[in-house]
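ok so for the tutorial part 2 we go from a plain amino acid sequence to predicted structure tokens. step 1 is just haveing the sequence, like this:
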Amino acid sequence: MKKLVVEGSRYGTLQVKALAPKEQWKYIDKGHAERCWVCICDCGAEVLVRRSTLVNTKNPKCNNPHPPKCLKCGETNSDNFYPRSVGECKKCAIERTNLAASKLSGYHLFIRYKITLEQYETLLKKQGGTCALCGEPPDNNPLSVDHDHSCCPTDRCCGKCIRGLVHRRCNTLIGMADDSVDKLTRAIAYLNQHQHQQAQ
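step 2 — the prediction. this is what the tokens look like for a chain of 200 residues:
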């Protein structure tokens, strides 16, 4: 099924104005003409564009030189654009990415741990904003959700066996010890023993 071109639609820097008169359609081969549309480019130029160019070309534009311009904030400094970026400056791209990440994290929390982002933030506030294990604040990564693996042995949990929020490294420490209090107690005794030996 062919994609329809509608007046007022945007394709890259082009906005469709109207269907061109039939005599202006461009012939592909003898006896077969392809519909063309009159489009207005962001640079102000009025151009005649084939239907196939509009629907099959990524970010179509006229042949005039086009300085970059962010369609969200109006930024025009080329230094503030990523290579091959069209219509979006670095700042707006980062904001869009962060927004998507925040939505994804909420989805991730519910799928894996059956809690909402609000419940996560409440638990973090209850812990004083720090890791429940070492007491230090979060690093560059958000604190991980730690749960009782005797209840839910996989990476996902029922939401009822969540113990707290911890650093990834702290979560790894517990996991490598198989959630064993005995192993961790022996590890503490081992470290204390060698700490005393170094002090002597």
